[in-house]
Prior knowledge:
Blueprint: H1 7-29, H2 34-38, E1 44-47, E2 53-57, E3 64-65, H3 76-85, H4 97-110, H5 120-128, H6 135-151, H7 154-164, E4 171-172, H8 174-182, H9 191-198, H10 213-229, H11 235-243, H12 258-264, E5 275-277, H13 282-296, E6 303-310, E7 316-320, E8 340-341, H14 347-356, E9 365-368, E10 387-390, H15 391-396, H16 400-410, H17 412-421, H18 431-434, E11 444-445, H19 447-458, E12 462-463, E13 478-479, H20 483-492, H21 496-503, E14 515-520, E15 526-532, E16 536-543, H22 555-570, E17 585-591, E18 605-611, H23 633-636, E19 654-658, E20 664-665, E21 677-684, E22 690-695, E23 698-704, E24 709-712, E25 716-723, E26 729-736
Parallel strand pairs: 1-5, 3-4, 20-26
Antiparallel strand pairs: 1-2, 6-7, 6-16, 8-11, 9-10, 12-13, 14-15, 15-16, 17-18, 19-21, 21-24, 22-23, 22-25, 25-26
Amino acid sequence: MKRRIPARVKAAAAGAVALAAALAAAVRWVPFPEDELARLPAAVVLADRSGEPLRVRLGAGGLDCRPGYEPVPAHWIAQAMVAAEDRRFWSHPGVDVLAIARAAGQNLFFGRRISGASTLSTQVIRMMHPRDRTAAAKLVEAFRALQLERRHGKREILAFYLDRAPFGGNVVGIEAAARRYFGKGAAHLSLAEAALLAGVPQSPSRGRPDRHPERAKRRQAYVLERMEACGFITARERAEAFAQPLDTRLGKYPFRAPHFCDLVGVPARAGRDATVRTTLDADLQRLAEGVLRRRLAGGPADGGAVVVLEVKTGAVRALVGSPDYAERRAGQVNGAIAPRAAGSTLKPFAYALALDRGLVTPATRLADVPARFRDFDPRNFSLDFRGLVSVRDALVLSLNLPAIDIERRAGQERFHATLRALGLATISKPADHYGLGLVLGNAEVRLLDLANAYACLARGGGWAPVRFVESAAPPATKPVFSSEACWLVSDMLSGEERAMDTTGHAADVRLPPMAWKTGTSAGLRDAWTVAWNPDYVIGVWVGNSDGSSADELVGRKTATPIAWDLFRRLYPDNEGPWFARPAGVVERTVCAASGCAPGPHCGHRIADWSIAQVSRREPCPVHRNGAEAVWPAAVAALPDPRAAPKPAAQAESVRIRTPARGSVFRHMPESGADAQRLALDAASDRAGETLHWFVDDRPVGKSRAGEPLFWPLERGAHQIVCCTARGPSDRVEIAVE
């Protein structure tokens, strides 16, 4: 006969079932504070493009919290934390019933609190919303822990805990702790390091390994014992880890690329782990810092800056604002964004504009003659005039009068609008404020903006803003110039013969393919160089932070060697990419004297580049009246006979173009014979005329105008003479050290 179950038992069972059902329903349907779970006092970590921290900007309350560590069960820190805090973490539902029963028995037996029953899940709830340590609070935490387990996986919950656990002082979360105590990410902690850190959260103030190493060591021993008991490690691994010496001095915060980090600030959108992965290339940054510091040591200025941009992406790969950030007087002045007078650095944009409008080609002749514009009386940097010069020579030599001519032809308002379209925001006043002097650099620019404007040329005419934060999406560009005009400007401003003229050192001729433009502001206050190829734009500025002048503040003397050093380090074998000629750039024949379409009386013709269906083709104005050349009156009236081509009847119609007068070269036999040959080149007003060359009264060979003769360098002072059979000659003096 079956025994009847007492009614009170049935009632109790029904009540338990109802309570369990109610609890299950509450766990499922009561809203869970997910917004509090997502809230962390996260620091923002500025990192380089590879993820290495550059700067840490502390979170609310000055806390160093770096969330985002994703625990893997095989990681030592994941195993150590589970063993130390919650050995049944992977199996319980958020509340460990066995741990509760054990803790209750121990506490009742001893009459005081001996152990607790907290799980990692309940600790996440407690850190998410701290409460008084009461029985009611524990019930709330247990209920929320059940909810947490229902909504999130175990690895996610472990990550929540490791992101919030206190590790002493202002250090919150395992990633910040690993970085501060051991200088590495949490995923790379050794067994000994992980066990040491896993023991800290139970008593973060008293267990700090940097201040209480003995107490931390005892706690490490406990964690290692628990790991062995859980089967995570062997006895041998436990002994070896405990014996391993550890240096746990609290590390300093990183402080790399300070001007770059100051400029980036704290972007509105950081990654999930509060890390902002910037565009900075750490190796390039160190290289730029070293070159700038070395080149300016004991130099003419206390300030200097370097910017390296990646052409395709617009990414800032290096930015150095001063030679020494720690220098009290000027170190923290960021020269990369300080507005300074532009010098001749704006000229290439005027020439690109004129090329795009079909007004000139590289061989078009411009008049470099004295001119006055109301109260504006421009002069060349060299204080002389050269008469008729090609567009290429005018741009390479940075002649002022031809540049003004180009600006007037292209339109001063249009040129001003082009500079604004290139992102030169400091040119903020109307065009008439600057007048014709704008092309000569009477406006202020920032090095970063200027380098990015040149990136438009290197990119083939599309402008995009610079980027400080890595992004997979390519930059959106807006067209400013045609690819043909950009190629022509780059072609004109490149070439090894330019290197020889710039420095006078034969050893400096060997360079990777690159174009560059120098600039020097009025009064010798700012020295500029911008160099570029299809990969990079390198911008350099050198000057004094207080704006004072110095005789050596000339672009080609002070700024150019810095840009060259960097390009050589980027391409140590002197091999690098170069621009492919666009299909729209075509070759045509022009008169050598005028750069225009040759007529029947133009005896000397040369090849020239032009933009198909854009470049104008005007007839030669010099040889209209038979064989006798008719030069513009302003050119013919120049007092210096070397400054302009003269009619054949006049003497002194030969001019040595290279080497420049007074050049000093360095003899370096280890560079090889090819690098130690000096190009001898001269201009003559007679097409195809044979030129005879003499060095120290010894004949060294013959050439024709425009065709260089190469002479091997010899140490000493030398006099170089070029003459024709008719008698005209020119001479220069050089020295070879």
